[in-house]
Structure formats: C-alpha cells, structure tokens
Design brief:
about 110 residues, two-stranded antiparallel ribbon, alpha+beta, about 10% strand, 4 strands, two-stranded antiparallel sheet, about 35% helix, extended
C-alpha cells in the first residue's frame, strides 16, 4: 500500500504541528472535494481535540477517555456511529457470458 500526501494541500496542513497524518489513495483530497461539509466538520473537530499522555496511558474499560472525548465532539455535530457490512457474491459464468441452467447459481465466498 503506497502512502500519499494530498493532506498537505487541504486544511489539514494547519494541523501538522498537532498530528501526524498518513493516507492512501489521496483520501484527503477525495473527501475534501466530494464531502466538503463533512470535511469541514472533521477538520473543526480535529482543531478542538486535545489530549495528554496521561489520557493515553490511562487504563480503560470498554472505551478509553480519549475515545469518549473524540466521539463526543463528533456526536455534538450530529455524527453517528455506523456499521458497514459487505458480502461478496461470485457468479460462475460459462465462457459465452450467458447464465444458463445449473451454472446460474451464486457462490458465496
């Protein structure tokens, strides 16, 4: 996986003294262009977010204080946790490219 640096051409540039960024496939450029409202909210949340070493090292149960604080900033903006499930379905096709008879069955992988 090759890292890209499109974040250097976005509003994340101002946050490089606060965070280290790593991305693939020019994710920052894609997100800032295609979801500009959400991108602006994301950057605003990162600007407000702070933590100390004590918070990082504190024992946690289900969620650490760091995660809870970050989540609360997103929740205040109306963001919600979501789960994405995906399933691959492969179809066996004869060489002619047409579905016929017994060959027309889905194989889950």
């Amino acid at each position: 996986m090759q890292l890209t640096t499109s974040y250097q051409n976005t509003s994340l540039l101002n946050l490089q003294s606060k965070f280290c960024f790593f991305e693939v496939r020019d994710a920052s450029a894609v997100l800032s262009a295609s979801c500009s409202k959400e991108w602006d909210e994301f950057v605003e949340i990162l600007e407000k977010f702070t933590f100390s070493g004590d918070v990082l090292l504190a024992k946690g149960g289900n969620k650490s204080a760091l995660v809870s604080e970050l989540e609360s900033l997103f929740y205040k903006k109306g963001w919600m946790e979501t789960r994405v499930d995906s399933e691959q379905i492969l179809y066996e096709l004869p060489k002619t490219g047409r579905l016929t008879g017994e060959k027309n069955k889905a194989m889950l992988k």
